Amino acid sequence: MSAKHDREEMLKDLQIIKAAVSKDNNMLKYINLLDAIRGVALYSGILIFVFCVSLLKLMDHYGSYHSLPADIKFVFYIVLGVCVLVIGIVKLRTLLKFARKYHKDISLAKLIREIYTQSFLMITTSFVMALLVLLIYFATADLAYLIVPMIAIIVALLMTAFVAVLNLNEMLIYVEWLLVSGLFSLFIADRININSLVILMLTFGVGMIILYLIALSSSLTEKRE
Questions:
Q1: ∠ CA(43), CA(46), CA(50), 5° rounding?
Q2: Of 2, 24, 95, 202, which residue is 20 to 30 A from 9 by alpha carbon distance?
Q3: How many Å apart are CA 126 and CA 157, to the nearest integer?
């Protein structure tokens, strides 16, 4: 009777453990995120450099950003928007492909719910609120040149939280680059009158290339093993 009672208690304990694990069963913990975002990181880095260099050349040709013809601005930002949309679609399709190795029947809607969980929203809400407040402040206080460094710093702090949650220690180099380059740009932006597009290339452009190289290195290491 005691043995039967012990087995029943053990089964109850196992059910409790299973329930607890299922609540923290975020699919992102099982996906090789570095491998999944490798291409997206490369495309994003290239897009940032092409966008910044192209806009700098246009500004140099016409004298300033405000002197650019409206039709050129319209076409330029339409092309940029389409490129961003394509990269976003590629990211979702790639994540879905990797997720189906873990769960064959997962849909796009289910994947989005797995990504944007309550924990995700709790982590990001405070950062997004701080970002919006600072954006409004810098824009209205004639401190627009500090917007890109500030975004880089906040994104770095946000990514630090996700690195800890998802145990992606390999991404720390990327996070540290964003933080260091953001802080560096914050202090030099006013002193040497550096263009915000150059800061964008320095922070996020180089950062995305670093992220791609980290992902590539991690993938090659796994293949050797």
A1: 135
A2: 24
A3: 11
